[in-house]
TrEMBL record:
Source organism of the structure: Pseudonocardia thermophila
PANTHER family: BLL6575 PROTEIN
Record's protein name: Conserved protein containing a Zn-ribbon-like motif, possibly RNA-binding
Residues annotated as domain Zinc finger CGNR: 145-187
A Pfam family annotated for this UniProt entry: ABATE
Length: 191
């Protein structure tokens, strides 16, 4: 099986940041959008939630709420990565959307032998779970570790969990390596 060329979208370190990478804000949707209908929700929500094999019940009516929450999380994430406080009044509308989704019923975990499964998962519960992850991330100390990949042609979000707090790339295999190659060439290393 060929490697997924979009795999780096799902390596941010948090489900709510991976959620952003499914299309981002409306102005980026034409280029990045993965969610067009219920089938896309069923395909991508398990990946975003880091729950492969999860069978989510979704309908086309779930697409607009998905996009509404994703837009709010996107705006918050990039603002926080730029150093804004989640308490900034400019972000109040987006915070209200996240809080509204977080106040609903999340996915309900259950033991299934030696593994975890979810009880009758729906798209609405998946969105509540993602909203709660955003509340936890942006309302806690890890918000200081939300970054945008330093590659000029990337822009993906990441959570820097490195001990020194100096992670720069969404993926060392792609963006980090390309940056090192560019730096080497600019120093005259490759002729």
């Amino acid at each position: 099986m060929a490697p997924d060329p979009d795999a780096r979208r799902w390596r941010s370190g948090r489900p709510c940041l991976d959620f952003v990478h499914s299309g981002g804000a409306p102005e980026h949707a034409a280029h990045w959008e993965l969610i067009h209908d219920a089938a896309d929700l069923r395909r991508w929500l398990p990946t975003i939630l880091h729950a492969p094999g999860l069978e989510i019940r979704a309908s086309d009516a779930d697409v607009e709420p998905f996009r509404e929450l994703r837009t709010a999380v996107t705006r918050l994430a990039y603002a926080v990565a730029a150093g804004a406080s989640p308490a900034d009044p400019v972000l109040a509308e987006h915070i209200a959307v996240v809080n509204r989704f977080a106040a609903t019923s999340p996915l309900v975990p259950a033991l299934d032998g030696a593994s975890t499964t979810f009880v009758a998962p729906t798209a609405a519960q998946a969105l509540a779970t993602l909203a709660r992850d955003a509340v936890d991330l942006f309302g806690g100390p890890l918000r200081e570790r939300v970054r945008v990949c330093a590659a000029p042609d990337c822009g993906l979000l990441l959570l820097d969990t490195s001990r020194p707090g100096n992670r720069r790339w969404c993926s060392m295999q792609r963006c980090g390596t390309l940056a090192k190659v560019r730096a080497h060439r600019s120093r005259g290393g490759a002729r």
